[in-house]
Design goal:
The protein is mainly alpha-helical and 313 residues long. The chain has ten helices and three strands; from the N terminus they run E-H-H-E-H-H-H-E-H-H-H-H-H. The chain has helices at 24-51, 58-86, 94-127, 132-135, 138-164, 181-187, 193-226, 231-260, 270-292, 295-309; strands at 11-14, 91-93, 171-174. Strands 2-1-3 form a three-stranded mixed beta sheet. The longest helix has 34 residues, at 94-127. Keywords: Cell membrane, G-protein coupled receptor, Membrane, Olfaction, Receptor, Sensory transduction, Transducer, Transmembrane, Transmembrane helix.
Length: 313
């Protein structure tokens, strides 16, 4: 088959969910309700934090950024998945696929860096609390947030640009439910050595570096907490970082499996399941984890509901 050129219309056959035609309605309902839950949950978290001045702290500022990135992740993938499930052809055009890949990769990369920044924020708050307000000043938080978004976008642009240099057949098969970097590279009809090399470099300098920095932060955090004599203070200190640690564990598990391993071997069927952790599960669970385990968020929610339901009270 001929490679990519301007006279061809390149399409991707998305067969990730087409193996069970009798379950298409069920798949549609699952993805639809998950998407709505992710949107409602993350918008609610952002609204609660914005409305309560007591939550205008670095930790909650970064949490708003996390919610926005979660919305970007799900919006980049799920609406198109719903359209493909309803369609008989189950295809995606080349521009649609590349756009989806770029937006999703940008949000995913930024979230990876943001979780590292949030771990550093917890390290400063617990290990050197007397200097917290100085180190994590408003300007510092803004600079860190801008850096997170910029580096995430830059990483996505690099991978997207390299993919645009590849040749694709007129009809390509992607055994996934959306266009993600490993699955798109597997569908290419030309050599992807440079692309795989770029993935490995990104894994090392972005993924593994963020992972190591996060581990170092929590090593110091746990060490400091264990030295606290008061059981009540120890419990309070741990509760401030338990939610973030839970999110990090869920997120890194899927990302490392999907992006680190393909650079050294073939993509397995299990990739679709692992991708769902940070594409679907994580954006839905994050608001639940941060709200149910955080008394400040719960109290702020009660205050917001009272203000809106009983305005004259």
């Amino acid at each position: 088959m001929k490679g990519n050129n301007q006279s061809m219309t390149i399409e991707f056959d998305m067969i990730g969910l087409s193996g069970h035609p009798e379950l298409q309605l069920l798949f549609f309902l699952i993805f639809f309700f998950i998407y709505i839950a992710a949107l409602v949950g993350n918008i609610a978290i952002s609204t609660i934090i914005t409305s309560d001045s007591r939550l205008h702290t670095p930790m909650y500022f970064f949490l708003i950024n996390l919610s926005i990135l979660d919305i970007c992740c799900t919006t980049a993938a799920i609406p198109k998945v719903l359209q493909i499930i309803q369609s008989k052809e189950k295809t995606m055009s080349f521009p649609e696929c590349i756009t989806q890949l770029c937006v999703f990769s940008s949000a995913l990369s930024a979230e990876l860096i943001l979780l590292t920044v949030m771990a550093y924020d917890r390290y400063v708050a617990i290990c050197i609390p007397l200097h917290y307000s100085t180190i994590m000043s408003r300007n510092t938080c803004i600079i860190l947030a801008v850096a997170v978004w910029f580096l995430g976008f830059l990483n996505a642009i690099v991978h997207t640009s390299l993919i645009l240099r590849l040749k694709f057949c007129q009809h390509n098969i992607i055994d996934h439910f959306f266009c993600e970097l490993p699955s798109v590279l597997k569908a290419a009809c030309s050599d992807t050595y440079i692309n795989n090399l770029a993935v490995i470099i990104a894994d090392v300098f972005l993924g593994m570096a963020c992972f190591v920095l996060t581990v170092i932060s929590y090593t110091y955090i746990i060490s400091t907490i264990l030295k606290i004599r008061s059981a009540e203070k120890k419990k309070k200190a741990f509760s401030t970082c338990a939610s973030h640690l839970t999110v990090v564990t869920l997120f890194y598990g899927g990302v490392i499996y999907t992006y680190v391993r393909p650079g050294f071997g073939n993509v397995l069927e299990a990739d679709k399941v692992m991708s769902s952790f940070y594409t679907i599960a994580s954006p839905v669970l994050n608001p639940i984890i941060y709200s149910l385990r955080n008394k400040e968020v719960i109290n702020a929610l009660k205050k917001l509901l009272d203000r809106n339901l009983y305005p004259q009270k």
